[in-house]
Each structure stands twice: as structure tokens, then as C-alpha cells.
């Protein structure tokens, strides 16, 4: 069961008499493939409820919305099993309705095995129960649910069937679960999921109507289309992150493509591909001038045949020297460097970089040796090529070999109350 929060509480609708809110319901789904059963969650499916609604009202609403019979519904809010139909939703999920709602179906045989005496205790961390195979084939004739306003039975009525004029109209059978399954599959295949309720965008702080907003598929946060399109268009990472502070979610490729125009999408693909190449530990770019070919070449691979320019790259020499052995090429390179055969532009560029590094206005990345410059700002920087966190004053890594937060290595700033360097401004 994923640890997620209900992000649809921002779409509450107010009127003069009743306070309504939308609940995001995650429906458990069982998929059987290759002899193994896998439990997945589909959704979220919004269900509109009133403030004074009880668990029984939620069961009826889920039956009307999803076609799942109320007697077979099992509700889990956060990690607590809901067993009392008289409990209100506010009591179950809190005043802010900030707990996730999970819906599953009971196995008929598992319900028969429950004890008939005594009230069952609520487990603190229940696991979602097993459900019937999807799509579920529950016939409406087998389970007859009472109408919303049942009539009192008459004791003086004869045993014969009532006349058509006096009998209440028969209740329409609930939709088959196959339609619910098809609706969930359709929602999964949508590129953009519209928000079911109005909300305030966390980026532009403007009120957005439900249909004009987008509900992110990965994390459930809602934003307006214009803000999400701007995030995707100007993002330099391989995956555009969710704008919500502290959220680790990201926009999917389908969402980014639906938000951007064709020209913007092509530019976004080029930037994300370049970011993926620079962040890959064993990436190698073709040494042919202006060639866009690259590949992931892990040791002991020594040759890379570029599919773009059809040239063969030598990984140990980091160059193209077709028809020349590695020993001869390296010898020729050393002789050319000793003779100083570089062009005037190359010599000026090399001298400028050496002077910048000597004046501590530039440095080499400790991971990929890319030249990094900094004009102002914090001493903690990130290499744009390999994403390594660097301490500017010590010219080394910020953290140890295990990554962010590892104080076994790196500059060890503020460990034991000590700064990493006399020039450290204690800002990283």
C-alpha cells in the first residue's frame, strides 16, 4: 500500500447550507499473469461527499459511482480498517480529510469465515484483502440492495403480488463492474487527468476551475495547465519535477507531450536527452565534430561504432584513429603536444582556463573534469554535466561516496561544529 496523501482536499466546494468535498479513492485491482497474481491500485477516482456523511453513505456513493456492491466493499483509510457504518468521514479521516482512502472487494468465502459473535477489532496496520479476479462478474440479481428511502412493510397486505400501479418502480440494476474496470483503464490511458474540483494553483496562486486544471498521475498534485507547461518547457533535467515543494514526483512523458506544442516537445526531448547523457556514469559521445551520437559503454568495451556518422571511436584513447594502433596514436599525440602544434585559438583558450583556475575563479569538477565557474552565491554547487555536489571553497566533493548526506567523506562542513575551510561562509 503506497504511502500517499489525499491531494484533492483543495477542491472543496462550499454553498450556503452544506459543505461538500471530493474524496480521492484508490481502487485495488488484481491482475493475474503467468500464473502469478499481482495487486495494483487504480485511480484516484473522485467521489463527492457531504460533511456529515457516514461510512454507509460512502458505501452507497461508491456503489452508484463504481458499481461495486456495498456489502462486498471493504474500506481502509490510511492504515485503519473501517468497520462501523455509523462512523462519519470526518471522524475516520480527520477534519482536513488528509488521509488516503482505499477500496477493495471482499472474497465471498472470506466473509463466511468471519466470526458471527462479538464485534471485530480494528487492526492497526491491516493489509488490503484479496479481491475477485478482474473484471469481476457479480450479477445484479444475486445481491439486492435496499433503496435509499425504504418503505415500511405492510402487515395487512395479502400475500399476492402487488399491482403494477401500486408497486414502486423497480430499481435500476447497478452497472456491471466490467464498465468500472473499463473506466479505470481509460483513465490510466489518458495523457492528462483533469482535476475533478476547483482549486488554487500552487505556482501562480490563481483559482482554477476543475476542468482547466491537471492532476499529475504520479503524485496526485493539481496545477493549472499553463504553469505545468512552463515547468516542462524550461526544465533542464531528464524528467520535469513536480512543482510542489518537497514532492519527489515528476511529470510523465505523456503529460509533457500533451502540455507542449510539437516544436516545444522537440526542444524538450533534446534537452532531456542531453541531461540523460551527462548524468549517465558510462556515457561516451562520438568524437566526430558536430555528431549527436552517443552510447553507454561499460568496461571492458573498447570500441564504439557510432550509428550516426558510422565512425569507430576508441574509448581508451578517447579519439577516432582508424587505421592507426593505439600505441602509435598516443605517441603521435605526445609528440604533437611537446612540439606545440596547437593553433593560436587553442593556445589562448588553454591559457585562459589555466589563469582562471589559478585565480580560483574556476575549477575542475572532481567527477568529470568539466570546467566550472562561479560568480556569486552559495559555496555548495552542482555540476551541470554529471550532477555531482561540490564544495567551492575546498574544490572537492560535498559528500562522501554514498551520496547526499554521507559525512564519511567530502568537505564535512559543520561536522562537530567546524567549518570545512577558513573561507567557508557556512551556507551549504
TrEMBL record:
Superkingdom of source: Eukaryota
InterPro entries recorded: LUBAC_E3_Ligases (IPR051628), Rcat_RBR_HOIL1 (IPR047557), TRIAD_supradom (IPR044066), Znf_RING (IPR001841), Znf_RING/FYVE/PHD (IPR013083), Znf_RING_CS (IPR017907)
Domain RING-type: 197-424, 201-243
Region (Disordered): 106-132, 144-176
Keyword annotations from UniProtKB, A to Z: Metal-binding, Repeat, Transferase, Ubl conjugation pathway, Zinc, Zinc-finger
UniProt pathway: Protein modification; protein ubiquitination
PANTHER family: RING-TYPE DOMAIN-CONTAINING PROTEIN (PTHR22770:SF13), UBIQUITIN CONJUGATING ENZYME 7 INTERACTING PROTEIN-RELATED (PTHR22770)
Protein name from the UniProt record: RanBP-type and C3HC4-type zinc finger-containing protein 1
Amino acid at each position: 500500500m503506497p504511502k500517499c496523501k489525499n491531494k484533492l482536499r483543495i477542491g472543496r466546494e462550499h454553498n450556503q447550507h452544506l459543505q461538500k468535498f471530493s474524496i480521492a479513492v484508490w481502487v485495488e485491482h488484481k491482475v493475474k499473469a503467468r500464473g502469478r497474481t499481482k495487486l495494483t491500485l487504480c485511480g484516484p477516482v473522485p467521489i463527492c461527499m457531504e460533511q456529515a456523511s457516514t461510512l454507509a453513505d460512502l458505501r452507497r456513493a461508491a456503489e452508484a459511482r463504481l458499481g461495486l456492491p456495498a456489502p462486498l466493499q471493504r474500506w481502509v483509510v490510511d492504515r485503519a480498517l473501517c468497520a462501523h457504518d455509523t462512523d462519519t468521514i470526518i471522524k475516520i479521516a480527520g477534519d482536513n480529510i488528509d488521509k488516503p482512502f482505499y477500496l477493495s472487494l471482499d472474497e465471498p468465502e472470506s466473509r463466511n469465515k468471519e466470526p458471527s459473535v462479538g464485534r471485530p477489532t480494528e487492526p492497526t496496520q491491516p493489509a488490503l484483502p484479496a479481491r475477485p479476479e478482474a473484471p469481476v462478474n457479480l450479477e445484479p440479481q444475486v445481491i439486492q440492495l435496499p433503496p435509499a428511502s425504504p418503505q415500511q412493510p405492510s402487515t395487512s397486505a395479502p400475500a399476492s403480488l402487488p399491482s403494477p400501479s401500486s408497486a414502486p418502480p423497480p430499481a435500476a440494476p447497478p452497472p456491471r463492474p466490467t464498465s468500472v474496470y473499463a473506466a479505470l483503464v481509460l483513465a490510466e490511458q489518458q495523457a492528462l487527468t483533469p482535476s475533478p474540483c476547483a482549486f488554487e494553483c500552487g505556482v501562480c496562486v490563481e483559482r482554477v476551475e476543475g476542468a482547466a486544471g491537471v492532476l499529475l498521475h504520479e503524485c496526485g498534485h493539481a496545477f493549472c495547465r499553463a504553469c505545468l507547461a512552463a515547468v516542462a518547457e524550461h526544465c533542464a533535467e531528464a524528467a520535469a519535477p513536480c512543482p510542489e515543494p518537497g514532492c519527489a514526483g515528476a511529470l510523465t512523458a505523456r503529460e509533457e507531450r500533451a502540455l507542449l506544442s510539437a516544436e516545444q516537445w522537440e526542444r524538450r526531448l533534446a534537452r532531456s536527452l542531453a541531461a540523460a547523457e551527462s548524468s549517465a556514469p558510462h556515457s561516451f559521445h562520438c568524437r566526430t565534430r558536430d555528431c549527436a551520437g552517443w552510447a553507454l559503454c561499460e568496461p571492458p568495451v573498447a570500441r564504439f561504432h557510432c550509428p550516426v556518422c558510422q565512425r569507430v571511436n576508441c574509448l581508451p584513447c578517447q579519439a577516432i584513429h582508424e587505421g592507426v594502433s593505439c600505441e602509435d596514436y598516443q605517441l603521435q599525440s605526445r609528440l604533437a603536444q611537446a612540439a606545440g602544434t596547437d593553433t593560436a585559438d587553442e593556445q589562448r583558450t588553454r591559457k585562459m582556463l589555466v589563469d582562471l583556475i589559478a585565480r580560483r575563479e574556476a575549477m575542475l569538477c572532481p567527477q568529470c573534469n568539466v570546467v566550472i565557474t562561479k560568480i556569486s552565491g552559495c559555496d555548495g554547487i552542482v555540476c551541470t554535466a554529471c550532477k555531482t555536489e561540490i564544495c567551492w571553497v575546498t574544490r572537492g566533493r560535498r559528500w562522501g561516496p554514498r551520496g547526499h548526506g554521507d559525512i564519511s567523506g567530502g568537505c564535512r562542513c559543520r561536522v562537530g561544529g567546524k567549518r570545512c575551510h577558513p573561507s567557508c561562509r557556512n551556507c551549504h
